[in-house]
Design a protein that fits this description.
Blueprint lengths: L14 E4 L8 E6 L4 H14 L3 E4 L6 H9 L11 H9 L3 E4 L5 H14 L3 H31 L19 H21 L4 H21 L5 E6 H11 L1
Parallel strand pairs: 2-5, 3-4, 3-5
Antiparallel strand pairs: 1-2
């Protein structure tokens, strides 16, 4: 079913469609505020509307199975209870779903090449590597949680959902307004303060890696990617 286009949660401000060279190789980027009900609705609706050949998520491939497990537990016509917009995307997709974020072998190769070329200070490199180690541990924990869920049939909740000032039971206008406030605040902070060098180095590498994976996926057909709003422009620029 095609969603109504007058729904305020579906505004194009957080959506970028990057046409390919042919009729079936577009990439649609859907920006989200993590765990926000308006973002969950936008992701589910656009997957239904665009019917992509692949849905790509800002998740490590290691972590993806846990969100697939969350999607399996979803009630009919309702988004999953856990996993926010990522498990909602898995639940809505009638196609291949892939994780395109770090950590991955491709990310580590790109990070090593960037460090070699840019030669950041040793302290910066150390902080970047500590951050990568942290997200790798978390991704492995998610993988273990997925395995435990398969073995026991029980839901393994590893992350507390982010609480927002609205729920999916609120009116669409209220959801959209709250999401816009949070997105504006986040983007304003990002633009007002230059991120620390380790954060910039890591995130620039992540965005380049996600864009490269999407470039590969578009060879197999249309792709829709779910990314945090802070990464929307960066990934779009890399793809362009």
């Amino acid at each position: 079913m095609v969603p109504p286009r007058d729904d305020p949660r579906l505004h194009d401000e957080y959506v970028r469609t990057l046409p390919g060279d042919g009729p079936d190789d577009d990439v649609t980027l859907v920006g989200v505020v993590h765990d926000h009900p308006a973002s969950v609705h936008r992701v589910r609706s656009l997957i239904a509307e665009r019917d992509p050949d692949t849905v790509a998520l800002e998740l490590s491939p290691l972590a993806l199975p846990l969100f697939e497990a969350y999607a399996t537990d979803a009630e009919a016509d309702d988004p999953p209870e856990y996993g926010g917009e990522m498990s909602a995307a898995v639940d809505a997709a009638d196609c291949d779903v892939v994780g395109i974020d770090a950590p991955s072998v491709a990310f580590l190769r790109r990070l090593a090449a960037r460090i070699r070329d840019e030669r950041p200070a040793p302290g910066t490199v150390a902080r970047v590597l500590r951050g990568v180690a942290g997200v790798t541990r978390h991704a492995l924990t998610c993988r273990a949680g997925a395995a435990l869920a398969r073995l026991t049939g029980r839901t393994v909740e590893l992350d507390e959902p982010i609480e927002h000032d609205c729920t999916r039971r609120d009116a669409p206008d209220a959801q959209a307004a709250d999401e816009r406030r949070q997105a504006t605040r986040s983007l304003s902070l990002t633009r007002a303060f230059e991120p620390p060098e380790p954060v910039h180095l890591r995130d620039a590498t992540r965005e380049a890696c996600m864009a490269a994976k999407l470039s590969d996926l578009r060879r197999e057909g249309d792709a829709l990617a779910v990314v945090g709003i802070d990464h929307l422009e960066g990934v779009a620029a890399e793809l362009s």
